[in-house]
Amino acid sequence: VAFVVCRSLEGLKTFSYLEELILDNNLLGNDLLLPRLPHLHTLTLNKNQISFQRNTCKILLDHLAEVVPSLQYLSLLGNIACPNELVCKEKDEDDYQRYRYFVLHKLRNLKFLDTRKVTRREREEALVRGAFMKVVKPK
Length: 139
Hints:
By secondary structure, this protein is of the alpha/beta class. The protein has one domain: Leucine-rich repeat, LRR (right-handed beta-alpha superhelix), CATH 3.80.10. The protein is built from three helices and six strands. Strands 1-2-3-4-5-6 form a six-stranded mixed sheet, covered by helices on one side. α2 packs across α3 (120-129). InterPro entries: LRMDA (IPR043313), LRR_dom_sf (IPR032675). This is LRMDA protein.
């Protein structure tokens, strides 16, 4: 397990066999770029600055799908992108479920998202409708 307390993740490229990475509380945003980490199966990005502004979260999820192909556990709790009713009173369980479908559509190998196991029904729903589940606010 590696603990990183910095904004630059360039040094991670020397840890190509890394399996777990905790990047909580690091002010990381949608511009996060990880090196290719083919063995990484667990990534936590809790309490950072990841949001669904424009298409940037889609780009981040596409990037993760490419550079961490073995990813099975991802946690984004405490980020604006993760509409959690405990953090934001305007959000409800439906908002959170749409977020899950969208993330699962992009990262199809996930077994756990945040604190919950991915169900077969969620995976099927994500395949059918996940691309359309991005949570956005009207301007």
